[in-house]
UniProtKB/TrEMBL annotation, chains A, B:
Domain Aldehyde dehydrogenase: 15-285, 314-379
One Gene Ontology CC term in the entry: cytoplasm
Name of protein: Gamma-glutamyl phosphate reductase
Cellular compartment(s): Cytoplasm
GO molecular function, one term: glutamate-5-semialdehyde dehydrogenase activity
Taxonomic source organism: Solemya velesiana gill symbiont
A single BP term in Gene Ontology: L-proline biosynthetic process
Entry-linked CDD domains: ALDH_F18-19_ProA-GPR (cd07079)
PANTHER family cross-referenced by the UniProt entry: DELTA-1-PYRROLINE-5-CARBOXYLATE SYNTHASE (PTHR11063:SF8), GLUTAMATE SEMIALDEHYDE DEHYDROGENASE (PTHR11063)
Gene giving rise to this polypeptide: proA
Keywords: Amino-acid biosynthesis, Cytoplasm, NADP, Oxidoreductase, Proline biosynthesis
Reaction catalysis annotation: L-glutamate 5-semialdehyde + phosphate + NADP(+) = L-glutamyl 5-phosphate + NADPH + H(+)
Length: 423, 423
């Protein structure tokens, strides 16, 4: 398949043109039509799951032959449970409220016109992701529900799996009377397809890259289209001197150890000097018992036996591993200063019983999620009630934090009059 | 002044660094502090208006010597009335509600955490604009109210006027206890300053260019920072076959002739075939009486005597002049198709008494403002009740349509718990 495409740029342009046309139809599609398509896709994946697993086996065999490591092969594999969860995801997205067409803030102006806003799709989304075939269905479903056409470019190792899922999506769309071009999966493994996709502002309205930091940085630098991106997750918990120490213990332990490899895991713990000894002497043994390596500032190392000295680099590192950097700070000011200097603007939490401190932290910690007395691990579209999540944005422009259906939409102004003219 | 700065990139980096630091203070500033600063700036401009007019005279004399045309010189001039209106603008912005810190959508989740959102500033805005000194005060005021630091780079012809306004702004900020670096006016006319400003994502969060299409396109292409931009205003009015013909006449005449040089002026009139003769025979003499040149499709030319044939280029042209292109279309479908092909996604209006047609037009016309029975000339931040306007965005990403204070903000998630951890 992929080798049949010789001119990748022309091919991508054609996909883009078709996506733009399909996006018009999707923008005008009713909620019922979109939901019918989502349910038909779910049913189609369910009834053709043997074919899907056969295609996935081709990818797994090619991957093993290529010497992919176990973690990559695991992500690539479509088990029965993963297919079930893909189907369930489609049905859940069908059940979510449709954001499109929502009208709000309608007010009469002194001139007599009535002005408000209407939520509309962005248009065409380009999704670039690693070799996880379930993302094909998830991302397509979120875009479809929010009225956006999509061009999906998954990792080349998942080529056959993605094409099989694309076939189910197309059959589902057609069954619901929507254009098959509303979701297009790039049918070439040529890397030039990515370069083309991110430089077609006439056909693509937003790029959502998912994957390693290197890939995302490259895409952001080269894109001529807005990017919803997520780079690091260097998250902090600050234990204030007016913290409830038991809450501090629970949250700081959970934020680090509930899972190590997620972007909302705490990487640096800040502790107010006044409670540093009490808090750290409780926490250190608990971390060590779980095998967490502790790297601390000078004061921390004085308190915790077995703590190694943190270097400057530690404060700017996303470990994604059982390692934690710890700094004792003078007070809230220094904690906020540390966060706004070293954070990746993902998620920060303060542990305090003092409402004035909590209010200041909420206002001044400049990150996409800011919490009081809660674990950073809650920073997630599902936990926030968005119903689903296409990514977490650490940017401030357009969407910030977990991005659900709303992040895939825009708002236009609508004006109703009765022959009103401007004088 | 300008010639004292030899290393423009280093200078802009310094401004950027100071702006970033000041933006932290502004984000934490209270509504009262920001309002006090705005009122103090207004008072300072009022009491130092003689100095300001002297500095403005220097610019006018230099401009005249350089041979600037009358229109440019007019825009450059700070008359007493314009200074009054600048002062009044500052006071109006002080009187607007503060968008920053607004908390909304707070809901309890099944886990017990409470999740909502808080409106926060974007951070640092870079404004690039033509030689209209009043923009210096307007743009600075909108950014200040929305908690953003600004770096302003006005047209070189207004150099002395802008520096005088900057001095008032700095005195006002200091009087209110806010850092003077919250608003910085670039003190060099070297064009390299623009190139530097739009490629400092570490210091600048958004670029807002105001000026000619060429400038805006260049900035958009070269920027490494998000841009809120406004290119063309190719606006349409569609007269449906179920229009009230008197309303159609009023709106179509007003949308074209109330002012010719504004971006929300209608450039193309679409008329349904069934009412084309009636509508155009009413409208044509009225347009001609006002000196509007009519360029029509074949059918239009059959109806209107003295109409010249429109070329393909006409449908994609923003005249900003007493010229109107007219096309007779079959029906609403063809009107929407024409608009979504040729519009610059600024503003479109349908004239109809039919609610089903109106609903379809509102949903399917893919522009930043979509109207029913109202003149496109209403597309404006003041008319919409935003209180002020920093520009009109024809993009879909982040801000769309007239951009007021809200478009200069972002939203972060806030989470309140009581020691909640994720299980």
């Amino acid at each position: 398949m992929s080798d049949q495409i010789t001119d990748v740029v022309a091919y991508m342009n054609e996909l883009g043109k078709q996506a733009r046309a399909a996006s018009r139809a999707l923008a005008a599609a009713s909620t019922g039509e979109k939901n019918n398509a989502l349910l038909a896709i779910a049913d189609d994946i369910d009834t053709t799951r043997d074919t899907l697993m056969d295609e996935n086996r081709k990818d797994l065999e090619a991957g093993a032959a290529k010497g992919l490591d176990a973690a990559l092969l695991d992500r690539l594999e479509l088990t029965t449970a993963r297919i079930d969860s893909m189907i369930e995801g489609l049905r859940q997205i069908a059940a979510l409220p449709d954001p499109i067409g929502e009208i709000f803030d309608m007010n009469y102006r002194p001139t007599g016109i009535q002005v408000g806003r209407m939520r509309v799709p962005l248009g065409v989304a380009g999704i670039i992701y690693e070799s996880r075939p379930n993302v094909t269905a998830d991302a397509a479903a979120l875009c479809l529900k929010s009225g956006n056409a999509t061009v999906l470019r998954g990792g080349s190792e998942a080529f056959h799996s993605n094409q099989a899922i694309a076939a189910s999506i197309h059959r589902g769309l057609e069954k619901a009377g929507l254009p098959a071009e509303a979701v297009q999966v790039v049918a070439t493994t040529d890397r030039a397809a990515v370069g083309a996709m991110i430089t077609m502002p006439e056909y693509v309205d937003v790029i959502i890259p998912r994957g390693g930091k290197g890939l995302i940085e490259r895409i952001s630098n080269d894109a001529r289209v807005p990017v919803i991106k997520h780079l690091d997750g260097i998250c902090h918990v600050y234990i204030d001197d007016q913290a409830d120490i038991q809450k501090a213990f629970d949250v700081a332990l959970n934020a680090k150890t509930q899972r190590y490899g997620t972007c909302n895991t705490m990487e640096t713990l800040l502790v107010a000097e006044a409670v540093a000894e009490e808090a750290l002497l409780m926490l250190a043994p608990a971390y060590m018992k779980k095998g967490v390596e502790l790297r601390g500032c000078k004061r921390t190392c004085e308190i915790i036996e077995g703590c190694t000295a943190a270097t400057d680099e530690d404060w700017d590192t996303e470990y994604l591993a059982p390692i934690l950097s710890i700094r004792v700070v003078d007070d809230l000011d220094q904690a906020i200063e540390h966060i706004n200097t070293h954070s990746s603007q993902h998620t920060e939490s303060i542990i305090t019983e003092n409402i004035t401190r909590a209010r200041r932290f909420l206002q001044e910690a400049d990150s996409s999620s800011v919490m009081v007395n809660a674990s950073t691990r809650f920073a997630d579209g599902f936990e926030y009630g968005l119903g689903a999540e296409i990514g977490i944005s650490t940017d401030k422009f357009h969407a910030r934090g977990p991005v659900g259906l709303e992040g895939l939409t825009s708002m236009k102004f609508i004006v109703l009059g009765d022959g009103h003219i401007r004088s």
